[in-house]
Structure formats: C-alpha cells, structure tokens
Design brief:
There is one protein chain. This protein folds into 2 domains: 1-62, Homeodomain-like (Arc Repressor Mutant, subunit A), CATH 1.10.10.60; 64-213, Orthogonal Bundle (Tetracycline Repressor, domain 2). By secondary structure, it is mainly alpha-helical. α5 packs parallel to α8, α6 packs antiparallel against α10 (184-199) and α9 (156-179) crosses α10. The protein has helices at 8-31, 38-44, 49-55, 59-63, 65-79, 87-104, 108-121, 123-148, 156-179, 184-199, 202-205. The radius of gyration is 19 Å and the shape is elongated. Helix content is 75%, strand content 0%. The chain has 11 helices and no strands.
C-alpha cells in the first residue's frame, strides 16, 4: 500500500515491516542467507525475535516479503481491469500497473531490485520463489477464467495466457539482471519488451466473432 492510504497505526506497522525487510536484505548480502539468523535481523531493528514472528514466519518470508505483496497486488489489479478488455490486454496492463505500484512504494524500487538480486544468488530462495510463482499463476488463471465466464481447468487458454505472460516477464527480468540495471525503469523497459514479444501472436490466435479473446 502507498503510505498516504494508511492510518497512523498501519503506517507504524508498515515502517517496522519495511525496516525488517531492509535489515534482512542487508544482512543476507553481507553474511549470506544461510548464515543470517532471525535473532540478528530482529536485533538490527531493535525488536525481539518474538515480535519478528508477528510479521514473518521466518527468513524466507522476510526475504520474499515485497514479492509476496506485489503478487497480491497483481491478482487484485487483474480482477479490477475493465470487463471490456480482452484477457491479453488486461494481463499486460496489470504488469504495467505493477511497476507503477512498485515506484509508488516508500523504498519500493530499491527493495524490489535487491530482492531480485538476492533470489538470483540464493538457491533456497529461488526454489521457494518458483513454487510461489506457480501458485500465483494458478490464481491469475482463475481470475482470467472468471472474467471470461469459463473454467480454468477445462479452457486451456486461461492457464496458457498466464504462463506465456509470466514466462515472458521472467525472461525480461533475467535479461535485466544479466545486463545489470540501476533503476526500476530500466527493469520495466526490458520486461515490457519481452512481454510484448511473448504475447504478440495471442490476440489474433484467440479472436473470433463470438468470443472476446
């Protein structure tokens, strides 16, 4: 959430949560993910481990916290797209909205980029991220199915669309990491380039006079 949308109590909780994420990322890069303890993360923010666990279930959760928040944002944003939009258009617009959302977060771009780099160099987190991504893709496909009035289990277009979109976006992110990027705008540009290449043939292939695909 953007800071202006929150009340005083929620802002305080968000500051503590962000502080934990930032402290964890700093420790993970400095000591390594496996060598860092929850106690060290909590101490860096001057809270107890017990308080830490009010915010996160463990190290993996704090490391992937922003990605988890962004996943929820994308699911909500896709469901909120206008009913008149074809699914391909709605999915692309959701990715554009995601980057706008990251840019609007207090410290969002730097935190997002750091998390992305950490995942790339930490096999444990990479495996967890892939598992979570699969679950998110399933939920996004369900949103597409609901928009179109079909079943994601029987209409393969729902899951195929989301897999193409997500795979294309991941390729853009991987390319950005290999080339090295300094700003969220640079990452966004490569993701959109890959996304547009990936979905280029979908609208024509899925259009008919009676179906809005």
């Amino acid at each position: 959430m953007v800071k202006d949308e929150l009340g005083l109590r929620e802002r305080k909780k968000l500051r503590t949560k962000n502080a934990l994420v930032d402290a964890a990322l700093k420790l993970f890069f400095g000591k390594g993910f496996e060598a860092t303890t929850v106690e060290e993360i909590a101490a860096a923010v001057e809270i107890s481990p017990r308080t830490f666990f009010r915010y996160f279930a463990g190290k993996e959760d704090v490391a992937l916290a922003q990605f988890a928040e962004i996943d929820e944002f994308c699911i909500t944003a896709l469901a909120a797209r206008p009913d008149t939009e074809p699914p391909v258009t709605a999915a692309r617009a959701t990715y554009l909205a995601m980057f706008d959302h990251i840019a609007a977060l207090d410290g969002g771009p730097a935190r997002y980029c750091a998390t992305h780099r950490l995942i790339g160099q930490t096999p444990t987190l990479f495996a967890r991220w892939l598992q979570t991504s699969a679950q998110v893709e399933h939920r996004l496909a369900e949103v597409i199915a609901a928009r179109q009035g079909v079943s994601a289990e029987t209409d393969l277009r729902c899951r195929l669309l989301i897999r193409v979109v997500c795979a294309s976006a991941r390729l853009g992110m991987e390319t950005a990491c290999l080339r090295g990027y300094d700003t969220i705008d640079e990452l966004r540009a490569l993701v959109i380039e890959a996304l547009d290449l990936g979905i280029a043939g979908l609208p024509a292939a899925w259009s008919s006079a009676t179906e809005r695909w």
